[in-house]
Amino acid sequence: MTGDPSASRRGAHARDDRNAAQQTVPARDGGRRDAARAGKDGRAGRERAGHECDGQIVVIAKEPVAGRVKTRLTPPFSPEEAALLATAALADTLGTVARAPARHRVLALRGGTGPWLPPGFAVLPQRGIGLDQRLTAAFEDAYRAHPLPVVLIGMDTPQVTPALLAGALAALATRDAVFGPAADGGFWLLGLRRPDPALLLGVPMSQPTTGAAQLSRLRAAGLSVGMLPLLRDVDTAGDAAAVAAEAPSSRFAAALAALGTGATRGTRPAPGRTSEEGVPVVMKKFPTK
Q1: E strand or H helix at 62, and its extent?
Q2: Alpha-carbon torsion 63, 114, 85, 67, what sign?
Q3: What pTM was computed for the model?
Q4: Regarding beta strands 104-110 and 177-181, do their DSSP bridges make them parallel or antiparallel, or are they unpaired?
Q5: pLDDT tens for residues 128-153?
Q6: Taking residues 165-194, what's their average pLDDT?
Q7: What are phi and psi of 16, to 5 degrees?
Q8: H-type helices in the chain, by residue range?
């Protein structure tokens, strides 16, 4: 790829958005208007829950094999225990996606399938080396099979609900993109009405500034972006305890309870990540313009 991909993207979307300009809020209006509009989109999604949305959901995940997943949970958990938690989080995520009103459901998988995979999912192997490449490929492969808006999530937010996913799909009816920021500075959801490699390739992944960089890339391309609520993904033992408390009826919470929690598991919130006063600090990482 040569040249400035963002510039070419701006031109393409400027043409695409002329007819939709009366219905969308320009990105330069800022995050507050995005958030307000996202709230309306979310309500619309909830109202449409149970009705099929004109879009698809992709879950990008790794086969939960001990030593290859959730390595930041070890210690205090063993690799086998971390894999059990990853399995539960993946099963919760796939179950939620199965209940969301999407036209198609896709699992972009590194590794093999297991009993945690419910029916109704097309399974595609992940392509690429870096995470930005694998995300790009997952968007491309899903859109090539079904040229419909794509909402992509990972396996680290088992507390996600069908209503949140319905809201994301609904947002793409009027927005170019939808973005779900994560408490660690990353993002837990990215939706694109029309995927383009230039929107993802080269974005530094797995960094505290990843979410801000990704959001800036979307806005620099001239896209209108709907914002979803901030969620916490499961990286550390402290995250695991907090997420289980948010979703007490989930498989993830049951698995964590079975393994045991408390001080012996080091489940205290990680500094700067999980305290209530930390949330607005994290949000400052995401530019509003």
Answers
A1: strand 56-62
A2: negative
A3: 0.76
A4: unpaired
A5: 999 999 999 999 999 999 999 999 99
A6: 97
A7: -65, -30
A8: 5-16, 31-47, 79-99, 131-145, 162-171, 210-220, 237-246, 251-259, 278-283
